[in-house]
Automatic annotation (TrEMBL):
<comment type="subunit">
    <text>Probably a homodimer.</text>
</comment>
<comment type="function">
    <text>Catalyzes the condensation of 2 ATP molecules into cyclic di-AMP (c-di-AMP), a second messenger used to regulate differing processes in different bacteria.</text>
</comment>
<dbReference type="GO" id="GO:0005524">
    <property type="term" value="F:ATP binding"/>
</dbReference>
<dbReference type="GO" id="GO:0106408">
    <property type="term" value="F:diadenylate cyclase activity"/>
</dbReference>
<feature type="transmembrane region" description="Helical">
    <location>
        <begin position="63"/>
        <end position="80"/>
    </location>
</feature>
<keyword id="KW-0808">Transferase</keyword>
<dbReference type="GO" id="GO:0006171">
    <property type="term" value="P:cAMP biosynthetic process"/>
</dbReference>
<keyword id="KW-0548">Nucleotidyltransferase</keyword>
<dbReference type="InterPro" id="IPR036888">
    <property type="entry name" value="DNA_integrity_DisA_N_sf"/>
</dbReference>
<dbReference type="Pfam" id="PF19293">
    <property type="entry name" value="CdaA_N"/>
</dbReference>
<dbReference type="GO" id="GO:0004016">
    <property type="term" value="F:adenylate cyclase activity"/>
</dbReference>
<dbReference type="InterPro" id="IPR045585">
    <property type="entry name" value="CdaA_N"/>
</dbReference>
<dbReference type="InterPro" id="IPR034701">
    <property type="entry name" value="CdaA"/>
</dbReference>
<keyword id="KW-0067">ATP-binding</keyword>
<comment type="similarity">
    <text>Belongs to the adenylate cyclase family. DacA/CdaA subfamily.</text>
</comment>
<dbReference type="Pfam" id="PF02457">
    <property type="entry name" value="DAC"/>
</dbReference>
<keyword id="KW-1003">Cell membrane</keyword>
Length: 276
């Protein structure tokens, strides 16, 4: 085999590996932040067990995994049907491989923090409950789909109107992505942490529940007391005014702190108590 053929084959193998690696990476990015990622982790664990059973000659374990894998492909297609459909839609739009990288630019961050702080301060004075979610790296598409899709430009006035009592969208959460209100009236998972204060109501439990499985920044206005809270990574801080909230959101969105999402839950009370 000539040196030219060897080089051509080497370059072809390199391109082949690069394409496959990128496809796998894009699929993982697509699944990140959804419930499907836990299923992917389970499949990886099964693969590790299967490899280990071959090296350690664990006949029974290998037999069990091989029999499970015979129906595994069909099960994966059924379980991942929404994600497969979303991937194909993005591929058709060219969005799976050429989507722009989400970046919180300075101007956009300032717009987000200002509008949310103004709305939260207004709602706090009138003791109107609110639950506002700011998406960061972890995708929240699963929860956006549970609400009413808006895809509207973020403004304090719109947030105030969404959370007005006795209006169709005032219950549930508002989810914000890249400076847009993606959806309102969204349902969030409630935290099952047994150490949460009994004084905290459904809004706070929902905010804490989402923060335990994502890196979202969550703003909560208590309906009972008007106290403004910020939740990140399972940690709840309370007692913000408009200026303090603006500074805290700027800090979180410009320089996200690297904390474990499974960090110990704790609450620092700044004033009063809260209930929904």
């Amino acid at each position: 085999m000539s040196p030219w053929e060897i080089m051509t084959r080497y370059i072809g193998d390199l391109i082949d590996i690069s394409i496959v690696s990128y496809i796998i990476y894009r699929l993982l990015v697509l699944l990140r932040g959804t419930r499907a990622i836990q299923l992917v982790q389970g499949i990886i664990v099964l693969i590790i067990f299967w490899v280990a059973s071959r090296f350690l000659h664990l006949t029974t374990v290998r037999w069990l995994i091989q029999n499970l894998s015979s129906v595994g492909l069909l099960a994966v297609i059924i379980i991942f049907q929404p994600e497969i459909r979303k991937a194909l839609e993005q591929l058709g739009r060219g969005g799976m491989f050429f989507n722009r990288k989400k970046q919180f630019q300075h101007k956009l961050v300032s717009k987000i923090t200002t509008e949310i702080s103004k709305a939260a301060a207004h709602l706090s004075k009138r003791q109107i409950g609110a639950l506002i979610i700011i998406e960061r790296k972890t995708g929240l598409s699963d929860y956006i789909e549970t609400g009413i899709l808006l895809e509207a430009r973020l403004s304090a006035e719109l947030l105030k109107n969404i959370f007005l009592p006795n209006t169709p969208l005032h219950d549930g959460a508002v989810i914000i992505r890249d400076g847009q209100i993606m959806a309102a009236g969204c349902y969030l998972p409630l935290s099952e942490n047994p150490f949460i204060s009994k004084e905290l109501g459904t809004r706070h439990r929902a905010g804490l529940g989402l923060s335990e499985i994502s890196d979202a920044v969550i703003v909560i206005v208590s309906e009972e007391t008007g106290v403004i809270s910020v939740v990140t990574h399972g940690k709840l801080d309370r007692g913000f005014n408009e200026e303090q909230l603006n500074l805290r959101l700027l800090e979180e969105l410009k320089s996200p702190k690297k904390k474990s999402r499974w960090s110990t839950f704790w609450i620092r009370e700044k004033e009063g108590t809260a209930d929904e």
